[in-house]
Amino acid sequence: MIDPRPSPVSAARRRTALDALRRGAVPESGLDLLATGLDRFECALNAELEAVASGASVFKAVRGEYGSGKTFFTRWLGERAKQRNFAVSEIQISETETPLHKLETVYRRLTERLSTTSFPPSALRPVVDAWFYALEEDALAAGVDENDLSTAVEELLAARLAEVSRHAPSFAAALRGYRTALLQGDESTAAAVLAWLGGQPHVAAAARRSAGVRGDLDHFGALGFLQGLLTVLRDSGHRGLFIVLDEVETLQRVRSDARDKALNALRQLIDEVHSGRFPGLYLVITGTPAFYDGQQGIQRLPPLAQRLATDFTTDPRFDNPRAVQLRLSGFTLESLTGLGMTIRDLYMSGADSPDRIKELADDAYIADLARAVGGALGGKVGVAPRLFLKKLVGDVLDRIDQFPDFAPRQHYRLTVGAGELTDIERNVAGSSSPDDIDLEL
User: Fold this and answer.
1) In whole angstroms, what separates CA 279 from the centre of its chain?
2) Rounded to whole angstroms, how far apart are CA atoms 372 and 366?
């Protein structure tokens, strides 16, 4: 059994986490409240985050079947990065919206999803504004007269971005154009130039001309812009950038030519991270075992397979958390029950009827519910966490808390409709009609 957490939890954090579970989603924050079984990774990952905060760069690959908690894990790690004042961006890789072989699109999604402890997505403008403020403060601290401040900031900008300008001179030009537009009170031009800096296509030609830049960001310029963004983040007070490329296994479903380009782009990214070009970057990808081990995944490009090769032939208890690949083993009935107990205890800490919840949703009931949801999904407990937590919070705990005469063993019958299942859950369950899974607890 997992004991209730002794430290008080704010109502806002608890509500955010439970609302997400009620919808069948992974919470965006508060994941430390729900984390179970991740302690074995903490020491190594904390050390890597500290190294990145000190100027190193890290690449990590996370593997796990559907339901093993990959999204939860990366958001949990992202929260730990934010606690160290990292900026964070989570990007969903997809064939149509964000193809990995088009790094300019990946960079655009990065800036759209950029968040910090103070600002939600997109935090690009606050970050850039903070950077210019830091440049002004550095210039004044060096004794520059306020009348000469603009020139001094220009000089500092050029100096700080000297290395970036070797690869992407238009990054510095766009920043200059943005600041010039602001000083002139031209908000529309400033916003357009900043959009171009964030990789947005189809920015008005007049705005681009005012900043001295041309065309749209391309595949090769994207890495230079990432390098520039890291510099801006560091100088504006952030210790690093944590990026997740989620669901990279979707590459297996694209045309072979696009897949080969995407795999090569991934190899290029890994090599650039390891070369030290991106100090302050922690880059994570997630994928299924089939993506890492199958012939339609990274094995298709031997140099990439070599870079990600990790020995998983030993007992999972002895997996090396410092390795380039991390394995998430997925949930068993025991661990799923333990997670349910953690959620119940979190719910109780802010419930109107905590005693009734403790009595009616006891450990034995939660174990039975976990077993029933797993049974509804063909006995595949590893696929069950999302649906199990949705049912537990929305169908059981909410009702116990609100209705004094509700008893789940007497009044609740687990019904899993095909319409509430994801495609993978539906395939596992093998259900063909909305209400063909009907289990008594």
Assistant:
1) 20
2) 10
